[in-house]
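ok trying again, last paste got cut off:
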Amino acid sequence: MFQSFETTASPAQGAPRVQALRERLLALKVDGFLAPRADEYQGEYVPASAERLAWLTGFTGSAGAALIAQQIAVVFVDGRYVTQLAQQTDPAVFTPGDLVGEPPAAWIAQHAGQGFRLGIDPWLHTIAEVRKLKTALEAKGGALVFLEENPLDALWADRPAEPLGRVTIQKHQHSGTLARDKIAEIAEGLKARNADAVLIADPSSVAWAFNIRGSDVPHTPHPLARAIIHADALAELFLDARKTGIEEKAYLTQICELRDPGDLALALDALSKRGATIEVDASAVSFELVRRIEAAGGKIREATDPCALPRATKNEAELAGTRAAHIQDGVAMVEFLAWLDEAEPGTLTEIETVEKLEACRRRVGERMQNPLADISFDTISGAGPNGAIIHYRVTRETDRQLKPGELYLVDSGGQYRNGTTDITRTVAIGSVGETEKRFFTLVLKGMIAISTARFPAGSRGVDLDPLARIALWKAGADYGHGTGHGVGSYLSVHEGPQRISRAAMQELLPGMILSNEPGYYRPGAFGIRIENLIVVEPASEIAGGDKPMLGFETITWCPIDRRLILPALLTREELDWLNAYHATTRDNLLPLIEDKKVRTWLEQATQPVG
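nice, full thing came through this time. structure:
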């Protein structure tokens, strides 16, 4: 199994560890310490050696931060994790904080005392974060203190070793562009901007630029590495050589100078002492590296990661690969859903369904000669009230049966060499109530609204987000997460800068892959989410219109549970889209399904609605 069901943290660990940290802070002469979820590479998904936030608090979500002071300990999370935070942390120790509405810097401005001295590990925070913290603290007459050693690391006696995952080459048939050409294009951009070099700090950008993949981090196939690309097209890759074999080393040494990660500081020093202008992405690079450059005399120029937009706007090879991966994944999902429907309600558990779904992906991958390389994140398998926990992770302690009359929410994905998938389906276990059906249909209306949207060039995710919510808003409801995130090409399932949300300011460009996943969650009762992946399509003419419009191509193919749909709540256009979607799903998947029972299930599940 790619997924573990063991409990990795406990609320009981919070009190003694916070107390030990507070004693440490007194010795360091700081009033508080900020422990982010991020690691030294600013990643969303981190190796076991960097799970500092979970070790300290018990909270295992993928976004958050803890501010520990002598009299208060605040754990900041976004709307996805409010319920999870309450379950995983000790309320006698930790106070919930709002990572979006009042993040740490805003909390300090509002609540910290005069002269507050906040300690941070400068490796774990970006320039942008440091600026905000400094501004808030200086307004209080306080100070931001850069600690030489992370105090949590000193307390974490059994901290795991840093990973040494094997690196592989992403072949041209999947990447579509040679690494040498990508590096040359980045170098040309540096020359045009009169910059000497760029520090690539995001491991996914490193993986994309050099056409390599890694296995340092669970479910995200990038290596923990950084790179410097110079204006003369010289590239330096700072990667532990123990992660490469003979073939990988031979490949890399043809396109770059392969250096030990410990040499990064020396390389930055050498550049800086010459007065070089070095570009960095303020949202991706650790402040410690910026501090090092400036101390050695280098000039920092803040700029967007030059890999970010090219990586987000997929080329034809990447799009063809991900389309194929989604059809394969759709076959696996249909086999799983047919098996689930055949089971007697109340006989399966959340863990059993996760195990079956991964087995389906493995079996279909072997049959189609495109093996499942990993899952793209821990499968969210939530029955009844567990479905209302937006990023629920089932463990042996929380595992429950899929009971009759409940909704079951399964959000999952696969990592294949040709693409990354992410799909959510909510299904009925037996006969469910009208309330559940009503909200399921309202969520479906939002998903269809995004699927069918047409929008002018220059539109951003923030402009489209209300389309997914309007049906719920009219019913006095909403959901506490974004409508869509970017998705990589055999890379991170959460990729920026593209997304659809209230804060999504990136222009949507042709070739970008996004999720389309509105939802509704009633704590203690049920959760609903329906998710397909979509690709921004080039602008095309609309009959009678006077301006070309962009749109979305749907690339996820799997039936939506017809038993949960109230047709009377759908417009004719929405019904037409749903029936056309199901017809195409049937046409795409039926020829690839061998089992007669599964074929019959698919034919029934894709019959017209309304």
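cool. Residues 249 and 352 are 41 Å apart (CA to CA). The two ends are 41 Å apart (CA to CA).
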